[in-house]
Design a protein that fits this description.
The protein is of the alpha+beta class. It is about 40% helix and about 15% strand.
Amino acid sequence: MQELERAKVIEAYAKGEIKAAVAALRLQISTRQVRRLQERFADAGLAGIASKRRGKPSNNQLEAGLAQDAMLVVREHYADFGPTLACEMLREHHDLVLSKETVRRLMTEAGLWTPRSERRPGLYQPRERRACLGELVQIDGSRHAWFEKRRAPCSVLVFIDDATGRILHLHFSETECTNGYFEALQSYFPRHGKPQAFYADRAAVFRSPSANKHIPTQFQRAVDELGIELICANSPQAKGRVERVNRTLQDRLVKQMRLDGIQDIDTANEWAGQFIERYNEQFSCTARSELDLHTPLRPTEDLKRILSIQDTRKLSNKLTLQHNQRQYILQDEPWLRAMIGQSIAIHSYRDGQVELRANGITAQYTILQPPKRSSPILVDEKSLHHSVDKLTAARRRTRPCRGDQPQTVVSTGVMAAKKMSAQKRASSR
């Protein structure tokens, strides 16, 4: 069909009905090629316009038998390999050089590989809601440009009741981190009480890496002290309700904050209650039971202490311990001497205060701070970008301007020599 269209255009050019430039534009070729085709058309007619490669093998075709040899090896040794890895093995161990896309096509034709576009999607059946308010609370963080271009992107920590779909709490934080969740819980518990269980993902905030499964995270330790069960989902689809709410918030919450003139995180956290009330009126549903399974905090539960970053260090013979590049010298008391060689609890609060406790008693101390040394910054994958941005901004602030750089001895001498030579020229005149 393309050759017939080409023949019509060349014939029109040969008859003088159109110019070479018009024919070249229609055929998407150069005017020189148009003239060549016109000469071939004049000599051989329509047959001269036909492609000269018709009936000839492709320049890119595989060597005879190469595909069959490759598939014999793949079937025997690499049937369960992916195309990319199988291609590498064929090249390294069998001297069969094929592109990975060719191997992918051959494996697909042989039924050894299913393209992603043809795979059946995973089956995620809906789960019935819990019966009571406070029985299961889904929590998740969503990083987004919540303030649009008014400030840098940040995270919103979302607390959703599984039974009613109500948003119980929203907390804006720079990153989805342990301290951010602790700040959110500091507001959540006095307002609602303690739920029966939290349902979260497998982020490092909630679940230790596989190498340290036996060591609880700070969040795990805190909710265990409060008697709240922490359940970690195996996939985002398992906690689909909070994921869908995040998607809704990325539209509605952003627009409402723009309309209400919310410009910063502190103002947003104070304002969030108004949005939650309007949202729940429109989107929440009624639970099957009227019971609220939230339980109030006990008088003995000190939220400030529980929601702190806690570590332990052993007390040395000198009544000292080290933590975060600081050496703590504990006050010499008989009961602390009895604790030598035992673990001392270190509570780091969000306001920067550090408390040392042994057997439930607070120990007095002084700090001997050694020279500052660089050490690795411990972050998880969700706060990495925020940490790098802070370092970059700090370096830009502390980078000296070219005019502020101190002059060296050499530059000072050069300037003095230039000044003296200028004075000599002036006096000679």
